[in-house]
Design goal:
Helix content is 43%, strand content 11%. The protein is of the alpha+beta class.
């Protein structure tokens, strides 16, 4: 895991979806209904969720914090280290 990933403080809806193991649309619905706190990027419809709000949401809804503590899950790669 890169140092940039271990220091992530704000997540996209896609990252939150991976952490919570739900569809990105589900995260958008949580956000739009006010259940999950965050903010929109100015001039864009993109949503961002600060790490502390995600932790609070996950605790309030009984979700395991394994993925958030380990930080953002990385998608699998098909690169072969031997070339």
């Amino acid at each position: 895991m890169s140092s940039e990933q271990t220091e992530t403080k704000v997540f996209t809806t896609g990252q939150v979806a991976m952490i919570c193991k739900v569809a990105p649309r589900t995260v958008s619905k949580w956000f739009d209904s006010g259940r999950l706190k965050g903010y929109r990027i100015p001039g864009s419809q993109d949503r961002r969720v600060p790490k502390e709000y995600l932790i609070q949401f996950m605790q309030a809804h009984g979700m395991p914090l394994d993925n958030i503590v380990a930080d953002t899950p990385t998608p699998p790669t098909t690169e072969d280290e031997n070339g």
